[in-house]
Amino acid sequence: MIDEQLARKAFETAINYLSISARSEKEVKEKLYKKGFHRDVVDVTLEKLKGYKYIDDEQYVSAYLSFYGSKYGRKQLSYKLVMDKGVDKLLVENIIADKISDEVEIEKGVGVAVKYIARKKLEKKDRTKLANWLFSKGFEWDIINKVLPQIEYFDRANSEIDFEDKAGNEEF
Asked: Helix, strand, or coil here: 38?
């Protein structure tokens, strides 16, 4: 039997934690354990939070992708959600597959690469450095190999970056 007062305190603790930012179920669970609540109280609290839709890992993943999706590749997003946030791997993979197509990933890779090039003032010879940096941001090699040809470098004196649509004539 669970003490009502203790259950209420655990629920209020979780609500306060969630009021700061959206959290995954694992993050809320760890916070409650860290505050010293027993497993039975934590389980009841989590069920109550799910009932009110205060925690929903599917919505959390979608919100996370909306916020961080433009900064990282699919691999990095998946890793952070599964390993750091404790979201189910299959759930994460399914949502990422639905929300981020190869075309979107390529566009994102070009955008991230442009920012990196402008910040670091890279030259043509730094193509490997750019590819490795994109890989470190979670972009897969097949995506990187499609991003690199879309970027034309100018020398250090000219910091402009020219984009050419490989399908033909349009410049971005």
From this structure: coil
pLDDT tens string 3-21? 899 999 999 999 999 999 9
CA–CA dist 127, 105 (Å, integer): 19
What token pair was written down for 81?
Answer: 């959600």
Cα separation, 113 vs 134, whole angstroms: 7
H/E stretch holding 169 reads: none
* pTM, rounded to two decimals: 0.80
Residue 141 pLDDT exceeds 50: yes
Distance of CA 9 to the CA centre of its chain: 32
How is the chain split among helix, strand and coil, in percent rounded to 5? 65, 5, 30
